[in-house]
Amino acid sequence: MQTNSKPKILILGGGFGGLYAALEFEKHLKDHDDIEVTIVNRDNYFLFTPMLHEVAASDLDLTNIVIPGRKLLKKVQYFTGDVVKIDCDRRTVLVSHGFADHAHEMSYDHLVLALGSITNFFNLPGLQERALTMKTLGDAIKLRNLVIQHLEEAANECAEFEREPLLTFVVAGAGFAGVETVAGINDFLRDALPFYPTLNENMLRVVLVHPGDYILPELGPELGQYAGDKLRDRKVEIKPGCRVDSVENTRICISDGTEINCNTLIWTAGSSPDPTIDFIPAGKERGLVKVNEFLEVSDCNGIWALGDCAAVPDLTTGKLCPPTAQHASRQGTVLAKNIIATIQKKQKTAFKFATIGLLAAIGKRTGVAQIMGFKFSGFIAWFMWRSIYLLKLPTIQKKVRVAWDWTLNLIFEKDFVQYSLQRSPVISNHSFEFDKVIRDNCSNDLPEVQSET
Length: 453
Known about the structure:
Layout: E1 8-12, H1 16-31, E2 36-41, E3 45-47, H2 52-56, E4 66-68, H3 69-72, E5 77-80, E6 82-87, E7 92-97, E8 102-107, E9 110-113, E10 117-119, H4 127-130, H5 137-154, H6 163-166, E11 168-172, H7 176-192, E12 205-209, H8 220-233, E13 236-239, E14 244-248, E15 251-254, E16 259-261, E17 264-267, E18 271-273, E19 284-285, E20 288-290, E21 303-305, E22 310-311, H9 325-343, E23 357-361, E24 367-371, E25 374-378, H10 379-392, H11 396-409, H12 432-452
C-alpha cells in the first residue's frame, strides 16, 4: 500500500511484548535507516508489573517501577494514545489522544498486536461496580490509598460499629497477582496497626478466595501448600474451592454459602484479551488471535501478534505459550527480527522457548520458586525473586532506586501516607467582615496621608 521507500511498522501496546519488540527495532535502527517504527501506548511509560504489589504495599516508591518510554527509545517514535479502531483493508489504525480525544489516523505496512489483556468480571452481579483490580499503576496507588483510608476511618471512636467492613479485605484469585497482593497488603496492614492505638489485630481480617485446592497452582501442590501454610501463619484466611458469586454494598457472597461483611474486594481472578483485537478478521483460539510459529497472523497479511492477546504455539510442549512476561519479552525480540527478515526477504525464525522458572514473593522475606525444575522456598526463594527481577528491571537508574528502597526497608518502617489527588482548598471572594476591616483601615489612614502632603 505504501508508496514511501521506508516500510512503516506500527506496534500497538507498550507492555513486555511491545517494548521488547521496539527495543529490537531500536538496535536495528542504530545501524540502518531503512524502516519507520512507531509504538502506540496508553501511558507514556513502561510498567514493570512484577513489582506492582510492592507499590500497593508501600515497599517501593511508585515512580521506581515505571520507565518513560521516550527514555528507552531514541530511534523508535513513541505515541501516547488509545487505539480506537483497526482497518485491515486500508491498513490504518485510528488513535485518540489529548485532552479532547483528538482522532489521529496512522498507516502501516506491518502491524504488531501487543495489546495484552484486561480484567474480566464475568458478569458477576455488583463486581464491576465494587471490585478493585491490580493491573495498572493507578490500581496499585488506589489500593494503597484505600487501605490507609480504612485504617484512618476505623481508628475513630465514632466508627466502632463500622470497623468490621472497614478492616476486612478480600482478594479473589490465588495466582501470582492475587497471592503477592494479599501477602503485601497483609504485611502492610499489620505493620501499620501499632500506630493506631484504638485498633488491634483481632479486628483485622484478610481473606484469600480461590477455586482450587491450593494456591499458586502454576507451581504445583508442594509449593502451593507451603505458600498457603505461610500465609495462614500470618493470619491470612484462605478459602479454597470457592468463588465470589456476587457483591452487594458491603456484602460479598461466596459460593460455599458464606457472606463476608467487607468494603474492599480485590479481583485478580480473571482476564480476557484486549477487545481491540476483534477488529482483526482472523481465527481465534480461546478468544486470542491465532498466529503461526513465526508470530504472524496467518489470515491477515502484514499483521503480527504476541503476548497475552495472541495464541502462540509452544513448540516445546505442543500447547499454547503461557501469558508470562518471560515469554512475551522473548516473543517481542523474535517478532521484530522476523519483520526485518520479511522486509529484507530473508529466512524467518520460529519462536521456541521453554519456561525457565516461576517465582512468587509471599511476604516477610519469604517466597516460593521453581527454577529449571528445581524447587525453592523460604528466604532463598525470596532472595532469588528480588535478585532476578532487579536484573530484569530496565535501566540502571531504576535498578539503583529499587535496590535503595529495599535497603531502607530493612532499617525503617513503611510509610503509610496517602497520595492525595485532590485539589487544594481555594477561595475567590472575600467575606463581608474581611471587606469591612479593609475599608476601615483605609479610611483611618486617609486623613493622616493627606495631612502629610
